[in-house]
Design brief:
The protein has helices spanning about 1-10, 15-35, 160-165, 345-355, 385, and strands at about 40-45, 50-55, 60-65, 65-75, 85, 90-95, 105-110, 115-125, 130-135, 135-140, 145, 150-155, 170-175, 180-185, 190, 200-210, 215, 220, 225-230, 235-240, 245-250, 250-260, 270-275, 275-285, 295-305, 310-315, 335, 360-365. The protein has about 400 residues and is mainly β. A 9-stranded mixed beta sheet has the order 23-28-20-21-22-27-26-25-24. It is elongated and about 95 Å long. It starts with a helix and ends with a helix.
Length: about 400
């Protein structure tokens, strides 16, 4: 009865107090709801549903009349894109590029001065590039290498945005050491510390090249983690005048070997050279290095490459009494050996078996200039200050 009476009383007079009371109640409820709504406005670019979004420079999150408190960007597999909210809370910037051909979801939250929150969501898909590149790298994942081994990447396309590409390759080490990259031309990037690696160092490389625009319209398509370990510390020093090579491990001489180096007109490069390949036996033909018809030896034993241009430390079974006495080679470092390399007691076999890719050979007192740092993995011949420029 009370409900019925109230209803009848309210409708008895359009201008009466019952009608005014109902109208006033609606206004009060609306005002209360408005007072709870945040003044902050969150904007996400690109907008929901966008396709063929560029992998860098497009993703932006901003807040007006408030400060951002949370921004989450992730793909459909849950992998997040890290980023930073500005000090004033007005914007969020991604720390890296986005992957290509990938769907992303954005969730952003901001608070106004009264602490009330506002949120915005967006979903979009990045572009699928028509032209791509990858980086061919050394050393291999899981390998153990010498103290001179850089992490070297050769790109399949010339790079015109080197900063963006270098930023996408992250190197961490245990124990920690500063590692810097250096470009050789526009298609090769090497990383190394200031001095040779410390024995036992664990190196992890994250190659986050997927989606990086290396040159206009050409995007990386590689996402890979590579790990390698630095083995024992071995550095060998060749004296071209004394015709000797002193092999050191952990700074101590473990063996002195009689050698022969490049003869007059074919002198061996001076400088620090890193072993890049090992061959139990290989063919050496002078035609391949510009010495047309001068030699063609089909069974050179215990050969270790030091430069791309053809400098090797290798076994030599044809050198007679040259070892330790005079220089007779076409630029290589020769160690006494036997044909077929079957004798493990000879100097060349011992050195081959005690060497690993990444070990260092230093040549001094030769009449030739210092080796070009780009000729092989020989960036150690560049001073640290210049390397970092």
């Amino acid at each position: 009865m009370l409900l019925a009476v109230t209803a009848c009383g309210g409708g008895g007079d359009g201008s009466g107090s019952g009608s005014d009371g109902k109208s006033g109640g609606d206004k009060g409820a609306t005002t209360a709801a408005e007072s709870k709504q945040s003044e902050a406005v969150v904007t996400v670019a690109p907008k929901t549903g966008a396709k063929d979004v560029d992998t860098s420079g497009v993703l932006k999150v901003t807040a007006a009349k408030g400060k951002l408190t949370e921004v989450t960007v992730k793909d459909t597999k849950g992998r997040k894109i890290e980023g930073t909210i500005s000090a004033d809370g007005a914007g969020w910037t991604p720390a890296t590029h986005l992957a290509a051909s990938t769907a992303y979801q954005v969730h952003a939250v901001a608070k106004d001065a009264a602490g009330r929150t506002a949120a915005e969501d967006s979903s979009f898909t990045t572009l699928s590039p028509q032209n791509t590149f990858i980086g061919n790298f050394t050393p291999e994942d899981g390998s153990t290498v010498g103290v001179g081994m850089p992490f070297s990447v050769n790109f399949t396309r010339g790079i015109t945005k080197p900063d963006d590409v270098e930023k996408a390759i992250k190197i961490t080490t245990v124990p920690a050491v500063e590692v810097e990259g250096h470009w050789f031309g526009n298609d090769r990037l090497d990383f190394r510390p200031e001095k040779y690696w410390k024995a036992g160092t664990k190196v992890t490389v994250q190659m986050n090249l997927d989606g990086v625009e290396g040159r206009k319209g050409v995007y990386g398509k590689q996402s890979k983690t590579v790990s390698f370990t630095i083995g024992r510390d071995q550095v060998s020093v060749v004296d071209a005048k004394k015709h000797t090579m002193k092999v050191t491990q952990n700074g101590k001489v473990v063996r002195t070997i009689a050698v022969t180096t490049g003869k007059q007109g074919y002198a061996t490069w001076n400088g620090q050279m890193v072993m890049s390949e090992k061959f139990t036996v290989t063919r050496m033909n002078g035609d391949t290095v510009g010495y047309n018809g001068e030699y063609d030896i089909k069974d050179v034993p215990h050969a270790i490459r030091l430069t791309n241009s053809g400098t090797f430390v290798h076994g030599n079974y044809w050198g007679g009494d040259a070892f330790g006495n005079y220089n007779a080679s076409h630029g290589c470092i020769g160690l006494r050996d036997v044909r077929g390399g079957y004798d493990s007691s000879v100097a060349a076999a011992w050195f081959f078996n005690h060497s690993i890719v990444g070990d260092v050979v230093v040549v001094k007192n030769s009449t030739d200039p210092t080796v070009d740092p780009a000729n092989g993995l020989n960036g150690w011949n560049i001073p640290w200050a210049e390397w970092k420029k």
